[in-house]
Amino acid sequence: MLQSLGPSPSAPPGTCAPGFHVLVVCTGNLYRSPLAEWLLRQRLLDARPVIRLSSAGTRALTGTPIAATAASFLLERGADASGTSSRRLTKDLVENSDLVLGAATEHREAAVRLSPVWALTRAFTLSEFARLVRAEDASGVADPAARFKALVRGAAARRGSERVRPGEDDIEDPLGAHPEEVRDCLVRIEGLVERIAAGGGARGGGGAPPPGAGGGAPPPH
User: Which residue ranges have biased composition labelled Basic and acidic residues (predicted)?
Assistant: First the structure.
């Protein structure tokens, strides 16, 4: 699912367009990745059009609407995600991203398999990046794109410095789960997004973007 915080000029594979592009990945591109994408968009609204956000799924059926539960969760927070639809993860999507955030380890690994050299130091799980990101890595950096690039370098250098149990960083797929479990999953993602956005210098706690400021439904693919 794609909605840019600003113009998204195309770029050759492996050469990101100007600015900074974050790609969030899950399996179906129905719950976890579109939720994180939209929440990040709200938190980073001040950084538009420099920071661009999109999402995809490793086994997504192109054109499937966002899950109703995720859409309702976003609507409670002032984001209207109706009209968005899923798309499949591709090598080009990975190589045109500066940061790939997977809902689980399998999604990070899928991105690395598609483009090992490009994604190895740019792909993390959402939980991993939220844990490793440090605002001080970009201390004094005002430009949003340069700031996020510094955060990615810092997180990549810090990777492996902490012991993590297998599966600890994975956000389970809520598809078919009990409503309370689905909500718990969405709340967990929201907390991780808050930590990442704070590292990126976001001001405020999110909430509804002003009318016409990019919080509505993204254009069709």
Answer: 159-168
Whole-number pLDDT of residue 161: 80
Q: What is the domain range of residue 154?
A: 2-199
Report if residue 6 sits inside a domain: yes
- Provide the CATH number for the domain around residue 15: 3.40.50.2300
Residues 6 or more apart whose CB falls under 8 angstroms from that of 103 comprise 24, 25, 26, 27, 32, 33, 36, 125, 126, 170, 171, 173, 189
> Given this model, what pLDDT does residue 206 score?
46
Tally the domains of the chain.
Answer: 1
Q: At what angle do helices 32-43 and 68-76 cross, to 10 degrees?
A: 20
Cβ(31)–Cβ(25) below 8 Å:
no
The model's pTM: 0.84
Cα–Cα distance for residue pair 69/172, rounded to 1 Å: 15
pLDDT, tens digit, 9 for 90 and up, residues 49-65: 899 999 999 999 999 99
